[in-house]
């Protein structure tokens, strides 16, 4: 086996430090498919992992990175062959198994999804787990019967990865999008993605009544806590609220009134262990429905060595849109 370039995280006490090192391929871990990686990305969960938050990285040393895209180099599984372009999101990556911040990965075939022909590996990581999660939210809204004619859709955490892709997807599908952000100076950016209206996140982030004036038919929420509770309280009769994040907190300080009196549905979105059929549908729809020009306008590219600094910034709400990591830069 030869060595590859990889970002490796180690923990001393409560402090996690990560640096780029030469890494022996023999230590990549168990799996029946070896992938030559080209791109990864930086998601909110990557920021949490590199911060040392418990329950994300479960043992050290570990190569972080919850997703990657690349080309199959070797396979002992008939589902994939050398030369296949693939993408991986979550599963055990960066938790119990070495992840995507390296030039190669070895993983179980079940963790891989064939990359749609319409997408390059760079575009796949411009979408990343954040964009794939946004698509799962859109699919849940559709499953719940929310159409463009039902009314507007609120997107919280609008400047983040999930929010940015959700706005682009929903507006492209004909929905009127209301974007909630704590950075009003980014209004032009959000409107360029397709947002029709911008509201200050402070409008939703404080305690509120369990039932408020109905404003939207659907919600894509990556914030949680009071923001999610207020979003639910303003959702129209038979509306659907999708919850996929906890940037403000894991609590839900509300009550059952919106669910009983307005027949509101709260749909939890899990991108980590989603079954293969859900992943295939999400990636197929992303290839079909996402405006790639809008996506590119939201992308910043960085080298592997820059990951720790960007990961710290994402937790502070200082990163806009999507950050792709060039693993061979």
Overall average residue pLDDT: 95
Task: State the secondary-structure class.
Answer: alpha/beta
Work out the strand percent: 25-35%
CATH fold naming of the largest domain: Quinone Oxidoreductase, Chain A, domain 1
How many structural domains can be distinguished in the coordinates?
2
Which architecture of the largest domain per CATH? Answer: Alpha-Beta Complex
Helical amount: 25-40%
Largest sheet: 7 strands, mixed
Distance between the termini: 22 Å
Q: Could you name the CATH homologous superfamily of the largest domain? A: Medium-chain alcohol dehydrogenases, catalytic domain
Helix and strand succession? EEEHEEEEHEHEHEEHEHEHHEHE
Task: State the total count of DSSP E strands.
Answer: 15
- Rg calculated over all Cα atoms: 20 Å
CATH class term of the largest domain: Alpha Beta
What would the principal axes of the Cα set say about the shape? globular
What is the count of helical runs? 9
Instruction: Return residue spans where pLDDT drops below 50 for at least 5 consecutive residues.
Output: none
